[in-house]
Design goal:
three-stranded antiparallel sheet; seven-stranded antiparallel sheet; 3 helices; homodimer
């Protein structure tokens, strides 16, 4: 790792404000995932639209999370997660795992793996992964994980953009 | 940055192979961007479906890139990039910036910023950003950048999934 990667991101010399920045990313579509884990006492999970493939060999995935997130204390101490890729009929599940003040697992619709990490029913696919590192980036972390197991169900995916849910229509170039 | 973030990702204890892993991410939809830069002699650019928002304050963005990419030598030495978010009529532009053996800028349709970094015409939005760090992850890098300027045009976005291009249909929960 080069020295530049070690300097914390704290300053901003940016000419744009946070609201301008958020507007650009609201307009950028993304598949929807729910990251789940187990904190030793109970299941934990949160909606994420920032899951990306980093490398296929080894199979590495990254996602970003705010350290202000209610799931961060559990995630900061966890060794494993499941990344549940939501299907196009799971918009309400996405909303539930993004809501505050609710027990996100109370309604069922999930099962624990042998590791205790929950897998959500009805997803388009999921990856069981070991956490490799949590890379600091201002008040957020880029969590880098290595996939240990993966399943795909062939269900169509859910897409989020501009504060609403979408399905896809294929078209030819 | 914690010590764990410093250990390079090289080993794999994974139970899945690269093709299984790729299949999961082929099924995961993503907005399409072209990352452009200038290597001091000529414009450089490549298609990326891994652009994520990391933090709004400061405005941080990340994307992953293989060090085997033809654009990596230029990107590894660059200080600035533009992230061009493609509009839903720009599938051919996406394909051009993912093709090998072609001059991706020969057909025009772009202009240089004062920094020399190209901006592509007709996008749904773009961000001019300073490169903060290039975080190692096996043979890839997670490039963390800070937005300096951003423009949105209101055009509808292009989505990539399962090796084809898509438009979005909004639907209610």
């Amino acid at each position: 790792m080069s020295a530049e990667a070690l300097s914390p991101v704290t300053s901003t010399t940016s000419g744009i404000d946070a609201e301008q920045f958020r507007a650009i990313f609201r307009a950028h579509p993304a598949g929807v995932a729910v990251v789940t884990l187990h904190d030793g006492h109970r299941p934990v999970g949160f909606t994420a639209t920032s899951v990306i493939s980093v490398s296929a060999e080894p199979p590495l995935v990254a996602f970003s999370v705010s350290t202000g997130s209610s799931s961060w204390p559990a995630l900061s101490a966890s060794r494993q997660v499941v990344i549940n890729f939501l299907a196009d009929d799971q918009a309400s599940l996405s909303a539930r795992f993004a809501a505050s003040g609710v027990d996100r697992f109370a309604d069922g619709g999930w099962r624990p793996l042998p590791s205790g990490v929950p897998v959500l029913d009805g997803c388009s696919g999921w990856i069981e992964a070991a956490i490799h590192s949590r890379l600091p980036a201002a008040d957020s972390r880029i969590v880098l994980v290595e996939a240990m197991a993966a399943w795909g169900t062939g269900r169509q995916p859910l897409v989020y953009r501009d504060r609403s849910y979408h399905k896809l229509i294929e078209y030819e170039i």
